[in-house]
Write a structure and sequence with these properties.
Layout: H1 2-29, H2 45-50, H3 62-80, H4 87-115, H5 120-143, H6 151-158, H7 160-178, H8 180-186
Helix pairs in contact: 1-3, 1-5, 4-5, 5-6, 5-7
């Protein structure tokens, strides 16, 4: 299952990163360009891309996604083809997805409380990163790759969808809270 999730999450993230890269190139080449994902004052890729958080390391964040999600697809395909990686590989994948998750959490916080805008493509990246991190973690717990193996780890693995649902409910709650004034005008 983790192999398929790496492929599917990687494809979702790669497509979103590619779309954002094209939007960023169009914005750079034509300062008056309005990205196709600018739907209203809240759902606005342009606001996110123009912020300093949109180029955290001095270049557009989607370029990180092109590399990271491409690598994730490759890992998923290799696993589907029968590659049985050693423990160090799984620990490395855990660290990589964990760093991706931390970056995504910071980007979520920035989108909600600094930029005050949501990018639809970015939200696809959030979902892909969270799902892949979660299931890589579940795989590593089930197999004992993280050095943690006991009733708590097995219980968490058994109720994996509940943990993922909590992740997303918390994020949805923060989105509702951050933009409540806007959402309430739509009712």
């Amino acid at each position: 299952m983790v192999a398929w999730l790496c492929v599917l999450g990687g494809v979702a993230g790669l497509v979103s990163a590619f779309a954002l890269t094209l939007e960023k190139i169009a914005t750079i080449s034509n300062p008056g360009y309005q990205p196709s994902c600018n739907l209203n004052p809240i759902i606005s890729c342009g606001s996110v891309m123009k912020s300093w958080q949109g180029s955290t390391f001095g270049f557009p964040n989607p370029l990180i996604g092109l590399v990271a999600y491409g690598a994730l697809i490759t890992i998923g395909v290799a696993l589907l083809a029968g590659f049985r990686p050693p423990r160090w590989f799984w620990v490395g994948l855990q660290v990589g997805t964990g760093l991706g998750l931390l970056f995504v959490f910071w980007l979520i916080y920035s989108s909600l409380y600094s930029i005050s805008a949501l990018c639809p493509y970015c939200m696809v990246v959030w979902v892909a990163t969270i799902v892949v991190f979660w299931y890589v973690t579940m795989h590593n717990l089930e197999r004992g790759h993280l050095g943690v193996n006991g009733p708590a780890a097995q219980g968490l693995a058994r109720f994996h969808s509940l943990g993922l649902a909590v992740f997303f409910l918390v994020i949805i709650g923060f989105i509702l809270q951050a933009f409540w004034m806007f959402w309430s005008t739509l009712l």
